[in-house]
Automatic annotation (TrEMBL):
<dbReference type="GO" id="GO:0005886">
    <property type="term" value="C:plasma membrane"/>
</dbReference>
<keyword id="KW-0050">Antiport</keyword>
<feature type="transmembrane region" description="Helical">
    <location>
        <begin position="202"/>
        <end position="227"/>
    </location>
</feature>
<keyword id="KW-0472">Membrane</keyword>
<feature type="transmembrane region" description="Helical">
    <location>
        <begin position="496"/>
        <end position="520"/>
    </location>
</feature>
<dbReference type="InterPro" id="IPR025383">
    <property type="entry name" value="MrpA_C/MbhD"/>
</dbReference>
<feature type="transmembrane region" description="Helical">
    <location>
        <begin position="161"/>
        <end position="182"/>
    </location>
</feature>
<feature type="transmembrane region" description="Helical">
    <location>
        <begin position="651"/>
        <end position="673"/>
    </location>
</feature>
<feature type="transmembrane region" description="Helical">
    <location>
        <begin position="6"/>
        <end position="21"/>
    </location>
</feature>
<feature type="transmembrane region" description="Helical">
    <location>
        <begin position="67"/>
        <end position="94"/>
    </location>
</feature>
<feature type="transmembrane region" description="Helical">
    <location>
        <begin position="627"/>
        <end position="645"/>
    </location>
</feature>
<dbReference type="Pfam" id="PF00361">
    <property type="entry name" value="Proton_antipo_M"/>
</dbReference>
<dbReference type="InterPro" id="IPR001750">
    <property type="entry name" value="ND/Mrp_TM"/>
</dbReference>
<feature type="domain" description="MrpA C-terminal/MbhE">
    <location>
        <begin position="689"/>
        <end position="764"/>
    </location>
</feature>
<feature type="transmembrane region" description="Helical">
    <location>
        <begin position="685"/>
        <end position="706"/>
    </location>
</feature>
<dbReference type="InterPro" id="IPR050616">
    <property type="entry name" value="CPA3_Na-H_Antiporter_A"/>
</dbReference>
<keyword id="KW-1003">Cell membrane</keyword>
Length: 772
């Protein structure tokens, strides 16, 4: 299980090398094996006797941060979707993306995203989950902006990251509060402490933080605006991220934490209202779109709203229906995204106004779209899986308890949203494949896609049909386990087509009947969009907020970004002085004690006096070389002090650093103008005096306070006793740096490595410009 999470990341390291051979063999052929193997590995866990599995790798145990992976029915469902749909998407991309594309970049981003999603759904540690959560935002940003030469792609990528990362930071706040309250970072242990969480005064804040993270990621109203703009990504990305994986991360989060919040009434009210509004608004706005992927984007928003609403209901029937629809939605929506990509690929456009009559020209694609759209619409046919979960959704809306006004309104809103779902489904299919042809408006002469591009949607449509016909076969062995992970009270419910003329079926008939009427009369009533939303747009609100933030931040930045290094140093050092002294004053940090100090000898005083003289002398020397050499006196004086205080390692390091620094300074200053005395105003001199004197005093006070404040026992004796035993070295300082504080050293090396890469990049850029 652990290897499955990191396998995509490990394989991604080899993509740059593999992509060099893309002219001979498409890079996607090698990548296809990764999700396929992961899918085949996890399929073995499907079965009625399945029980949860836990695996752990220690990472930072002192902080409670370990790679704790937990596989139960819920995470198994998502893992199979991530790997299964992922394999089909990679297979589809082999024929969709030409070899002239930057395939190395694409597949590295895709594998990064796959690993991040696997980490999200399998992590039991909240902080590890958060790390993977943010990795999904970063990798999806790269995937959405893959065609970065397009302005709309860059806009969509930035928009998605801004909104989802904002929600991610909120999510982190909720996780921190949960950890503080429960004393654990394990989700399963948190679930076992439900009473502690529900009795906490921070409960409303925790729920708000977590739901904000979930709503932004799963494009819930009003945060849904990023999803339509993300459609600028290549179709394989849309089929993967926006039908089966990323947008369902928020759904997964709500499902995972439902055992904690399900008995909290405000959880039911908040999630149900947001979900139902998202269903209605998404389906209503989908009918307005003219871009195929735009229609599918808003349809995804509406479907996610329906699933979110069912999780908000929290009843056994609603939870089972939500789990079932997560699976069904991935099959029909994934296939429809791929069909939209095929239409775009073979006709050169996604504008539904230019399309029509393609059934005879693209019969296979049309047939696949027929099953996908009718399943999405919830048409009551026994071989369409969408109808089953849609009817279960209607059933779950009946008899809700809690806020009475909301419980009574939800069934009507569910029917309303489903009516528009039916309309946009019919609009999508019949608008593309029936009616008059507009071949003269198409950039390409349409024809059926190659079989390789059709394999993936065919498999997904077969899933639609097989789940519709034999859905109950997956019930006890698969779906039931997933539902019970969300609500332990869920019992076996047989899945079958005909239940009689009960209320949910009547609701379905109303949807179909009213939907047909609205579809046939679309031209007569679509003028309503001029009223609602009219000129109002959440996108305009977002753009206005970003514009204002950009304007204000630019104004603030222009105040201190003056181009003067002296100005920058004054701000940095002045802020450091004020903030540090203020904090020391508030926290009673001005402790002064002269106990346990070594005696001060004449030679130490002499060295200190020489250092002070050297430091002051640099202010009055106008010769470059002279100033550098006098500055070196200060550095070598510090080295002597290290020798006097029996720190030969530090003395040697100081000598080496000081010698190299002086040499570099001499080389640099040789090419610079000679120093000359500058005329400065009195205020400037006073500012210099304040900063230099204040910073010197600050360092003195920190040193004295650090010596005088003994909040803990000294750790020095621990190092003396354990450096050889734990680190295997006689040199205590080296053991501390390499073993006991190895994480600090690792980060320092990482910073140096990044700096080296940046310098190398600048050199390469300069050479490239010179060559041009």
């Amino acid at each position: 299980m652990i290897y499955a999470v990191f396998a995509p990341l490990i394989f991604a390291l080899f993509i740059p090398w593999i992509s060099k051979f893309k002219n001979k063999v498409h890079t996607g052929i090698f990548v296809f094996l990764v999700p396929l193997v992961i899918f085949l590995y996890f399929v073995q866990f499907i079965g009625s006797d399945f029980s949860p599995i836990r695996e752990t790798i220690q990472w930072i145990p002192s902080l409670g941060m370990n790679f704790d992976f937990y596989l139960d029915g819920l995470s198994l469902l998502f893992v199979l979707l991530i790997s299964g749909i992922g394999a089909l998407v990679v297979l589809y991309s082999i024929y969709y993306l030409s070899k002239s594309e930057k395939l190395g970049h694409f597949y590295v981003y895709l594998l990064m995203f796959m690993a991040a999603m696997l980490g999200v759904v399998l992590s039991d540690n909240v902080f590890v989950l958060y790390a993977f959560w943010e990795l999904t935002s970063i990798s999806s940003f790269l995937l959405i902006g893959y065609w970065n030469f397009k302005e709309r792609s860059r806009y969509g990528a930035l928009k998605s990251m801004m909104i989802t990362v904002f929600g991610g930071l909120s999510l982190l706040g909720g996780f921190v509060l949960l950890t503080v309250i429960t004393g654990t970072t394990s989700i399963q242990e948190m679930i076992s402490q439900v009473d502690v969480i529900l009795s906490s005064n921070y409960l409303p804040l925790i729920m708000a933080f977590i739901l904000l993270g979930a709503f932004t990621k799963s494009a819930q109203f009003p945060f849904h605006i990023w999803l339509p703009d993300a459609m600028e990504a290549p179709t394989p990305v849309s089929a993967y991220l926006h039908s089966a994986t990323m947008v369902k991360a928020g759904i997964f989060l709500v499902a995972r934490f439902s055992p904690i919040f399900s008995t909290y009434e405000w959880f039911f009210i908040t999630v149900s209202i947001v979900g139902i509004i998202t269903l209605c608004w998404g389906s209503y706005m989908a009918v307005r779109q003219t871009d195929l992927k735009g229609i599918l984007a808003f349809s995804t928003i509406s479907q996610l709203g329906m699933i979110m609403a069912m999780l908000g209901f929290g009843t056994e029937a609603a939870v089972f229906a939500a789990i079932f629809h997560i699976l069904n939605h991935a099959t029909f929506k994934g296939s429809l995204f791929m069909i939209a990509g095929i239409i775009d690929h073979e006709t050169g456009t996604r504008d539904i106004r230019k399309l029509g009559g393609l059934f005879t020209l693209m019969p296979i694609s049309a047939t696949l779209a027929l099953f996908g759209t009718f399943s999405m619409a919830g048409v009551p046919f026994p071989f369409l899986n969408g109808f089953y979960s849609k009817e279960l959704f209607f059933d779950s809306t009946l008899g809700l308890e809690g806020a009475s006004w909301l419980a009574q309104a939800i069934p009507y809103l569910a029917v309303l949203g489903s009516i528009f779902t039916f309309v946009y489904s019919m609009y999508l299919f019949f608008g593309v494949f029936t009616g008059p042809k507009h071949l003269d408006q198409l950039p390409k002469k349409p024809h059926e896609a190659p079989i390789g591009m059709l394999i993936s949607p065919i498999i997904l449509v077969l899933g639609v049909i097989l789940i519709g016909l034999f859905g109950d076969k997956l019930n006890q062995s698969f779906l039931l386990h997933a539902a019970q992970a969300v609500n332990s009270g869920v019992e076996y419910h047989e899945i079958y087509f005909w239940h009689g003329f009960i209320t949910p079926f009547i609701m379905s008939l109303i949807v179909v009947g009213v939907g047909i009427i609205l579809f046939l009369t679309m031209k007569k009533w679509t003028g309503v969009y001029n009223i609602l939303p009219g000129r109002f747009s959440f996108n305009r609100v977002y753009d206005r907020i970003i514009e204002k933030l950009d304007s204000y931040s630019k104004g603030i930045t222009n105040v201190y970004m003056t181009g003067s290094l002296k100005h920058y140093m004054a701000i940095i050092l002045g802020t450091t002085i004020v903030v540090t002294f203020t904090y020391m004053y508030i926290s009673n940090g001005f402790s002064i004690s002269f106990d346990n100090l070594a005696e001060v000898t004449f030679i130490e005083v002499a060295v200190i006096v020489i250092i002070i003289i050297g430091a002051i002398a640099t202010l009055f020397i106008n010769n470059n070389i002279g100033a550098i050499l006098v500055t070196g006196i200060v550095g070598y004086g510090v080295a002597i002090m290290f020798v006097l205080y029996r720190a030969p390692d530090l003395a040697l390091t100081q000598l080496v650093v000081e010698t190299i620094s002086i040499a570099l300074f001499l080389l640099c200053f040789y090419h610079l103008p000679k120093l000359r005395k500058r005329e400065e105003s009195t205020s400037s001199k006073l500012l210099n005096l304040f900063i230099s004197g204040g910073f010197g005093l600050l360092i003195i006070m920190i040193g004295i306070a650090a010596h005088s404040t003994n909040l803990f026992d000294s750790i020095s004796q621990y190092f003396v006793e354990n450096s050889y035993k734990l680190g295997g070295g006689d040199n205590i300082v080296n053991v501390i740096l390499v073993d006991m504080r190895g994480l600090d050293t690792l980060f320092e090396i990482t910073v140096l490595g990044i700096a080296a890469l940046a310098v190398f990049g600048l050199i390469k850029m300069k050479k490239k410009k010179e060559a041009e």
